[in-house]
Write a structure and sequence with these properties.
Two copies of one chain form a homodimer. Chain A is an alpha/beta fold. Chain A has one domain: Rossmann fold, CATH 3.40.50. Chain A is 43% helix and 13% strand.
């Protein structure tokens, strides 16, 4: 017979509270909402940020196009309504991850101020940190890592943010990180410094 | 000037892998998919399971009606199409949490076998543990914790699972937990014993 080892476990009943999670995990759940043009460096910074946090014994997770657009939001297109629903769902998922007390890093262009504000409104006080990954469109276009600007200029991609669709710059972002001036590492360190300063993590 | 303490942090570049997460968190991400009738005990068991895991230094999170139906899925009703989309989204979110290496406990009736199998197909090998929270409908109706069976009998709720809508029992669930025979604590211990036996956690 299989021995039931779980008779050794500590047993308390009842719901786990946010405070319980904070104490156990030694961090505060938060959504770090990276917004900016295609090619501004959002995903690269998200990867570095997650790596640095996890290496230093924190718990973090990235929501980005790779794991959301092809999964949860695969039934959405790029019409204005679908873009809004896309960001709404991401906000709701970020809220769940933040409730689980993770440092949740979202990396989406999220061009509309109203959509970002909706996401902010879903989260609690101090649970939403908007980080504007700022970079002139000319620099993003010159980088053109994915070749998307070229396609947009050729008209192969319609409604491309920064070229043929608007990007509404954040007016009250908690942080602005200019990637035409800062290296990826310095940009990431700037975000981590903010998280330390505000008491989300201790590194 | 604010001192940038983050100059002390360990710095490595690149994506965090599943293996990195497993090593750091000393557990394997998995979705524990609880399915069963209303009143069978899914939510109660989910709460106990999450509590026991977190008290014992594991990382777990519950997805249930409370945090999903009023948030991510608030734009869905109870038509067959909406029920399917409801479970699809829950499966996708469970996949994200499992990818984040959490022990993810879902507590939804999820009456259709095909919908549960879709969720299973989203997750990788060994990442989906279907647990049938079994309880005769007569017993669930007698408990009627939320008064829903009474409303269903009175015709105030249409298409109520077990009364006026079908529940398709799992045929190949990893575990069957009969709550007409086991206490909540014993039911929960049975699930934890399975998680230990299969190497998801060490308690």
């Amino acid at each position: 017979m299989t021995q039931t080892k779980s008779t050794n476990i500590t047993w308390h009943s009842g719901k786990i509270s946010k405070e319980d999670r904070k104490a156990k995990m030694e961090q505060r759940g938060v959504t770090i909402w990276l917004t900016g043009l295609s090619g501004s460096g959002k995903s690269t910074i998200a990867v570095e940020l997650e790596h640095a946090l996890i290496e230093n014994n924190h718990h973090a997770y990235i929501l980005d196009g790779d794991n959301v657009r092809h999964g949860l939001n695969k039934n959405l297109g790029f019409s204005p309504e679908d873009r809004t629903e896309n960001i709404r769902r991401i906000g709701e998922v970020a809220k769940l991850f933040t409730d689980a007390n993770l440092i949740t890093v979202t990396a989406f262009i999220s061009p509309y101020r109203a959509d970002r504000d909706e996401a902010r409104a879903l989260l609690g006080d101090g649970e939403f940190v908007e980080v504007y990954i700022k970079c002139p469109v000319e620099v993003c276009e010159q980088r053109d890592v994915k070749g998307l600007y070229k396609k947009a200029r050729a008209g192969e991609i319609k409604e491309f943010t920064g070229i043929s669709a608007p990007y509404e710059e954040p007016e009250n972002a908690e942080l602005v990180v200019d990637t035409s001036e800062l290296s990826v590492e310095d940009a990431t360190r700037k975000i981590i410094a903010y998280l330390e300063q505000e008491g989300y993590v201790e590194l």
